[in-house]
């Protein structure tokens, strides 16, 4: 008797493996949601397209310019009726260039760019201020239909107050006009004043004894109930 090769269960294994492989590759290559949030793709002559073509090994996909690892280096969301950049926007925190012009953006963008430390060119509608204010950028230029914020300043260097972070902490930039104080090794807590590693054992100790006393209480009440009945 001759078995039909494709139908036999054993020959299904490579098929399943191939399918899984294709699925995992597709998953790895899936574009971040922010790249497909707006319809269409980056227009040929936009700043993001020019940047992407200028730099080798970068490719345009939907609204993003990506490197070989799929990291977002450019994002063009212009002309997309956006009132705000939306919850997926932090996916683009690695971008060097972002274009948001021709959108009815509303409100303050400061926290929108939290963590966008690589950003060097930001194109905005004319009526929206550069995040962090004029002092967070090297140059702010106004055009008829847009404005550009260029060259993100390291606010840790430009601040007049060198003592902005506590004694055992240091200042690191955290996006336009934003900074973070990071405690030195071996320090933690408010103003980096607590020494030693985080006292986990104490936390669990207290939690443990609380749980224990609640259990004893419950055990006691259950016993009383049991006696009553
Ligand atoms: C944009 O560029 C692509 C390839 O570089 C080309 O095929 C297409 O026609 C261009 N589109 C416009 C509107 O110029
Ligand atoms: C914006 O998009 C609309 C279609 O969605 C198009 O008609 C219009 O020309 C675009 N404007 C610009 C400045 O690209
Ligand atoms: C900004 O708008 C002007 C017209 O006012 C246009 O010529 C220019 O290309 C726009 N800049 C960018 C970066 O798109
Ligand atoms: C800011 O300071 C850091 C370290 O103090 C230095 O490496 C960096 O080049 C400075 N950046 C600017 C723009 O001055
Ligand atoms: C900073 O660390 C030094 C030891 O490295 C310590 O003597 C000092 O009290 C610390 N300062 C603060 C404000 O905790």
TrEMBL record:
Segments traversing the membrane: 200-220
Cleaved signal peptide residues: 1-30
Alphabetically ordered keywords of this record: Disulfide bond, EGF-like domain, Membrane, Signal, Transmembrane, Transmembrane helix
PROSITE patterns per the UniProt record, alphabetical: EGF_1 (PS00022), EGF_2 (PS01186), EGF_3 (PS50026)
Domain EGF-like as annotated: residue spans: 152-193
Disulfide-linked positions: 183-192
Organism, as annotated: Rangifer tarandus platyrhynchus
Lineage: Eukaryota, Metazoa, Chordata, Craniata, Vertebrata
Highest taxon of the lineage: Eukaryota
UniProt KW Membrane keyword: yes
Protein name per the record: EGF-like domain-containing protein
């Amino acid at each position: 008797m001759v078995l039909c090769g494709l139908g036999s269960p054993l020959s299904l294994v490579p098929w399943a493996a191939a399918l899984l492989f294709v699925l995992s590759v597709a998953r790895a290559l899936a574009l971040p949601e922010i790249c497909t949030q707006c319809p269409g793709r980056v227009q040929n002559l936009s700043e993001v397209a020019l940047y992407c073509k200028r730099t080798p090994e970068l490719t345009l996909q939907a609204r993003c310019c990506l490197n070989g690892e799929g990291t977002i280096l450019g994002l063009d969301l212009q002309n997309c009726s956006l009132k705000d950049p939306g919850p997926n926007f932090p996916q683009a925190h690695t971008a060097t260039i972002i274009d948001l012009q021709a959108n009815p953006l509303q409100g303050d963008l400061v926290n929108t760019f939290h963590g966008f430390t690589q950003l060097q060119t930001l194109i905005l509608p004319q009526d929206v201020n550069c995040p962090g204010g004029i002092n967070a950028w090297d140059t702010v230029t106004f055009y008829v239909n847009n404005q550009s914020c260029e060259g993100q300043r390291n606010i840790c260097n430009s601040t007049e107050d060198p003592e902005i972070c506590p004694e055992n902490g240091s200042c690191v930039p955290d996006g336009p006009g934003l900074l973070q104080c990071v405690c030195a090794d071996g320090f933690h807590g408010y103003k980096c004043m607590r020494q030693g590693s985080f006292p986990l054992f104490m936390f669990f100790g207290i939690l443990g004894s609380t749980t224990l006393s609640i259990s004893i209480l419950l055990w006691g009440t259950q016993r009383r109930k049991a006696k009553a009945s």
